[in-house]
Amino acid sequence: LRDENQQKIHHISDLDELNQVRVSLLGKKGPITEVLRGMRDLAPEERPKVGEFANQIKAELQANLQERRAALEAAMIQKRLEQETIDVTLPGDEVVAGTPHILQQIMDDVEEFFIGQGYQVIDGPEVEEDHYNFEMLNIPKDHPARDMQDTFYIDSQLLMRSQTSPVQARTLEKHDFSKGPLKMISPGRVYRRDTDDATHSHQFHQIEGLVIDRHITMADLKGTLLALAQHVFGAERKIRLRPSFFPFTEPSVEVDVSCFRCGGVGCAICKYSGWIEVLGAGMVHPNVLTAAGVDADVYGGFAFGLGPDRFAMLKYGIDDIRSFYQGDVRFLRQFQQEG
Ligand code: FA5
């Protein structure tokens, strides 16, 4: 019984089989139990010998089973370790990393420039009140200037903001001038009922700028915008201010950058004038300051609103604004940032 079963135990190949063998050998119906049970039929002097012998075999078989179990478990662990080994010489899978959208890159660049000049970055709501988008900016109801920015209304009081200028009004209302001047920019999305074409989108971006203090002049505005143009478009750039009209600034200007696509000689992008229009700006109208509770006799300053979409088009020579919004990765990958 012992030799035969030791052989058998030695050849067990998995834990299930081992369990079956253990039950059949040592269980209630196994041969050893049977021998021990049959002892009552033996002569009393034989019982201790037979009992001792049966128990010894039982202990040996138990030890053999235990040993086999340990060996099988070790082999299983070994096998799993081998299967899970990483071959560091295999070629790796490419990790597809995203990158900030080209418009985000331009906005980050403009933001960085202004943060470096001590401006705060302020957010405003995209769903805006008529009050801030128009009234506080010197554009009362029925004023013809409302037609300049055809607007998506939600109801008679609420609208999708058509410009980032309402953030000027909101910030002016809250700013405490006893604590110092106000210098802020506000980037964000704006909406207009414009028909989409190569240079217009019904949803685009603006970055508003506002500086209010006691002695701000138009020269400060010009110097700021020249430094910005040179930062974004290159140190060779010049700017040109042309008279314009916005209800919330007086005087108002449109600002052109010298064309860098054709070196000022003339090309389709600058319409052969050597200059490209990039933003609107001006000296903040006293009515805007007064409406926000700021003393217009003491304080004044400049404001501007630029379009990062147009900035990106000019910087990279992109001829259709819709490319920014179609999400075509073949287009977007051209502007992948390193690292
Ligand atoms: C304004 O929206 C004024 N709030 C700007 C301003 C701010 C003036 C502060 C004075 C003081 P305008 O409508 O011109 O102005 O728009 C400003 C810029 O937004 C334009 O120069 C242009 O770059 C961009 N822009 C305007 N309409 C669109 C459009 N449909 N698609 C893409 N960009 C546009």
Automatic annotation (TrEMBL):
Tell me where in this chain the Aminoacyl-transfer RNA synthetases class-II family profile domain is found: 102-334
Query: Enzyme class, one word?
Result: ligase
One GO BP annotation is: phenylalanyl-tRNA aminoacylation
Record text on cofactor binding: Binds 2 magnesium ions per tetramer.
Protein name per Swiss-Prot or TrEMBL? Phenylalanine--tRNA ligase alpha subunit
The residues the record assigns to binding Mg(2+) are E250
Q: Name one GO molecular function term.
A: transferase activity
Q: What NCBIfam families is this protein classified in?
A: pheS (TIGR00468)
Q: Does the keyword Glycosyltransferase apply?
A: no
Specify whether Protein biosynthesis is a keyword of the entry.
yes
The record's GO CC annotations read: cytoplasm
**Similarity-based family:** Belongs to the class-II aminoacyl-tRNA synthetase family. Phe-tRNA synthetase alpha subunit type 1 subfamily.
Q: Which cofactor does it need?
A: Mg(2+)
